[in-house]
Amino acid sequence: MRRAAKRSAVMRWSTLAGLALGLIVLVGCREVRVKTLAAGTTTVLGGNQILIVRDEVTLGKLGIRAPIHFKGEFGVVLLMGPHDRTGYKQIVESIGANTQRVRVVAFEQAPADAGEPSPQYRTYTLWIVPNRVYRRGVRVEVVTPSDEPIATTYLP
User: What are the C-alpha distances in Å from 140 to residues 22, 120, 149?
Assistant: First the structure.
C-alpha cells in the first residue's frame, strides 16, 4: 500500500514538473524569428539607410532580388556606404527590440588588403520579419558598437 502511495506522489510531482516545464517552453516561444535572408552589395547609390520594404517594386528599386512573401512578411534593409573600393562587408553585432523601438548594432568592415578600385556601391543586409510583429510608429535605429547613430526610420 505504501509503495502505491509513493508511486502516486511521484507521478503527481513528475506531472506537475512536466507541466511547469511545458509552460516555460511555451512562454519562451513568444520570441520572434527574424531571418537574415541576404547580405551583399548594390549599385543603387545613396548614404546609410534603414528601409522598410513592403513590396517587390521597392525591393527591385534597391537592386535586390529576394523571395519575400509580402502577404505574410516584410523586409528590413540596412544600406551602408557608398564605397569605391571592393571588399567592404557589414557586421551585425546584435538586434534588440521592445514595444517602442528596434535597435541594431552594426558596422562595416573594411577589406584587409585595402580592396581594388571599383564603381561606387553600397553594402546591404536584408532581414525578413513576420507581419504579425509589424507595429506602426515603432522606431528602428542602427548604431555603431560605440553608440554612434548610423540610420533611423519608423515603421510607416
Answer: 33, 26, 11
